[in-house]
Amino acid sequence: MQIVSVLNHKGGVGKTTLTANLGAGLAARGKKVLLIDLDPQASLSLSFFTSEEWSVLAGRTIKDWLVPDSGLDDMKPLISSPPRVNDRLGFSSGYLDMIVADNDLDQFNERAIARTAADPSTFAEVHDRLRHGLSMPAMAEYDIVLLDCSPGFDALGRSAVAACDLLLIPTRPDYLSTNGIQSLGKKIVDFVATFNSHRGKLSPVRRPAPSIVFTMVQMYGGRPIADQRPYMAQVVTPNLPAFESMMSDSKSVYGPAPNHGVPVVLGGLGRAQTRELREIVTELTERLENLVP
Ligand SMILES: Nc1ncnc2c1ncn2[C@@H]1O[C@H](COP(=O)(O)OP(=O)(O)OP(=O)(O)O)[C@@H](O)[C@H]1O
Ligand SMILES: [Mg+2]
């Protein structure tokens, strides 16, 4: 199993849209995919389930694993199968499962702050809960787990970093979006160091391999417009590569998709956005194959 976090402390950059499309795209290629919604806004959950379906899942959300005293032995009872996307996947041997979010997921962040303030030596244990859950035999059926993080870098985001092998940072090619990337990198380095200094008997966390995926790119003649190219060049370094394929800006295509419960990547191939999303899925697959175990 390989675990990918989709994280950027900037809001509204396309994290959830990218996660939904990668998940569905990988499932269409025969992968057994688990999505976990780590955002109290529950946008990923509501991209696959109607609000009625989601409300029935109360008590079976990722909060029920992360916030203690739930009495669960593993995360298996929290897994749901979103119906519409799996219907669309049809005869693919892959499928898409999900653990949805809860609007009260912030309780995990609040408890993490309280616990680590009262006793700093609990830092690693607090941030290990998700990694621990994912490492259990009950999760072994999945090829790939995708973690959709909320904006910011709170205890939920840090837990995702502790758990993942690869970090995808969706970024809009503009001044404000690209500016924060360096500080995010520094926060991740600090987090990994703090975790490992308090890890006790836990295995050390390795810094996940990061990659940028440019989103909401304005294209002209098949290339990003000249205004956006300098921002792209500014953030990409040998240690922080970017996917060659990018998500073009198209509100009319991406806006309605969550309402249908089927991401754009599973749409008709005539659509430019479907093609570019499939290229992003291919690049992710290649990156995962090349990861050092
Ligand atoms: N490539 C795109 N082109 C145009 N609009 C997009 C694109 N990708 C996403 N959007 C739209 O932008 C909005 C924000 O997208 P999304 O929810 O994926 O961002 P996010 O980073 O997850 O936000 P948050 O930080 O709130 O979690 C949504 O309305 C979505 O439909
Ligand atoms: Mg989101």
TrEMBL record:
Protein name: ParA family protein
Gene3D superfamilies: P-loop containing nucleotide triphosphate hydrolases
AAA domain segment(s): 1-197
UniProt cross-references to CDD domains, sorted A to Z: ParAB_family
InterPro entries in alphabetical order: AAA_dom, DNA_Partitioning_ATPase, P-loop_NTPase
